[in-house]
Amino acid sequence: MNTINFDEPIRAVPLWLLRAYLEELGGTLEGDYAVRGTDWYAYLTQLHDYEVGSLRIGQVYIAFEGDTNALQPIRDGLTVKLQTRGGG
């Protein structure tokens, strides 16, 4: 198994919705801030709002760990969901 780690901030998506997306992609909730799938794990952290002038945008930090082959479809599926904002 080839294990990788990567992380990134996700903007304009609330934590509860990001958790739901990860569940739809095959994960199981482990508490309020963690989702585990087969050979992958994601930990979510609510960050302070991102501010540009008077505009405030919520953001969540997501850290992934797991097998490269397991994480690639999760990351691809999450990208589709985040781009469509309606859940893909």
What's the short story on this structure?
Residues 10-88 form the Molybdopterin cofactor biosynthesis MoaD-related C-terminal domain. This protein has helices at 15-24, 68-84; strands at residues 3-11, 28-29, 34-37, 40-52, 55-67.
Q: How would you sum up this structure, described in words?
A:
The protein has a single domain (about 5-85), classed as Ribosomal Protein S8, Chain: A, domain 1, CATH 3.30.1370. It contains two helices and five strands; from the N terminus they run βαββββα. The protein has helices at about 15-25, 70-85, and strands at about 5-10, 30, 35, 40-50, 55-65. It has a five-stranded antiparallel β-sheet. A hairpin with a 2-residue loop joins β3 and β4 (about 40-50). The radius of gyration is 13 Å and the shape is elongated.
Core attributes:
31% helix; elongated; 88 residues; Ribosomal Protein S8, Chain: A, domain 1
Assign the CATH architecture.
Answer: 2-Layer Sandwich
Number of helices: 2
Content-based structural category:
alpha+beta
Q: Report strand order across the widest sheet.
A: 1-5-4-3-2
Uncertain stretches: none
CATH secondary-structure class? Alpha Beta
Overall mean pLDDT stands at: 91
Give the helices and strands as they follow along the chain.
EHEEEEH
Terminal CA distance reads: 29 Å
CATH superfamily: Molybdopterin cofactor biosynthesis MoaD-related, C-terminal domain
Radius of gyration: 13 Å
CATH topology: Ribosomal Protein S8, Chain: A, domain 1
**Into which percent range does the helicity of residues fall?**
25-40%
The coarse overall form would be elongated
Largest sheet data:
5 strands, antiparallel
Number of domains: 1
- Give the quaternary arrangement of the chains: single chain
Strand content: over 45%
Domain Molybdopterin cofactor biosynthesis MoaD-related C-terminal: 10-88
Protein name: Molybdopterin cofactor biosynthesis MoaD-related C-terminal domain-containing protein
